[in-house]
Each structure stands twice: as C-alpha cells, then as structure tokens.
Automatic annotation (TrEMBL):
Extent of the signal sequence: none
Pfam families: DsbB (PF02600)
Name of the protein in question: 2-oxoglutarate dehydrogenase
Segments passing through the bilayer: 9-29, 41-59, 66-85, 110-134
Length: 139
C-alpha cells in the first residue's frame, strides 16, 4: 500500500525534496550568511539540477527521467557522506580536498550534536534515490 502510493507520487515527492534541499541551502548561505565550502558546492551542483530534470521529465512524461536523476542523487549522497565523515572522524587528518576559505571539516550548524548540513544533504539525496528506486520498481 505504502510502496504503491510512493511509486505513484515518487517524482512529485522527489521534486519536493529537491526544492526543500535547494531552499535550505540557499537559506543557510544567503540569509544565515554561512559560506559554503568546496564539498558543499559540489553537493549543490548535484542537487540543484535535479529540480529542472524532474520538472522537465514530468512535463514531457519522460519514462526515463529516473535514469537521469539516479546518478546525480547517488553521487551527491556519496559527497555528502564523505563530508559528514570528515566532520566526525579522524579522516579529516588525511583529507586530500583543498578547502579554500571555509574548511570542509568545519561544523557550522549542529542540531542535537550530530545533524549537520552535510547530514541533511545526505538524507535529501538518499530520499531522492529511494524514491527513484521505488518508482523503477512500481513501473
């Protein structure tokens, strides 16, 4: 029952999730004035286009839109997970990423001590990935 509901509305829910993630990132950078680090920019590069891809795919009723979104969501999730590891593990000591103005390991926001911006980004990408996989399964 739940899977069929999610499958039916997967594209709409993924579009909503991408909008929430995009508006959230813009809120933190433009209103809260938190400067994004290099890895944050890469996560944005993979999240922002998902809105356009999903919207155009839905308007054109493109049955393959899932295959356009999935790689972006999976790569974005990997980047977000890597940054989250940098923030909370000794991996930061061997970080090969050169961060310019803002360190990728810096925790700018932490809700409940562990919910950081990369964690929220990771959850967003995973939600979109899960919705795309459900959509594939329920075709």
């Amino acid at each position: 029952m739940l899977i069929s509901f999610l499958g039916k509305y997967a594209l709409y829910l993924a579009l909503l999730q991408a909008w929430v993630a995009t508006l959230g990132s813009l809120y933190y950078s433009e209103i809260q004035k938190l400067e994004p680090c290099v890895l944050c920019w890469w996560q944005r590069i993979f999240m922002y286009p998902i809105i356009i891809i999903l919207a155009v795919g839905m308007l054109r009723k493109d049955k393959n839109v899932v295959f356009y979104v999935l790689p972006m969501a999976i790569i974005g999730a990997a980047i977000a997970f890597y940054q989250y590891l940098l923030q909370f593990t000794p991996l930061a000591e061997v970080n090969p990423i050169v961060c310019t103005t803002v360190s990728c390991e810096e925790i700018q926001v932490a809700y409940f001590g562990f919910i950081t911006i990369p964690f929220l980004s990771f959850l967003g990408f995973v939600a979109i990935t899960a919705l795309m996989l459900i959509k594939l399964r329920t075709k």
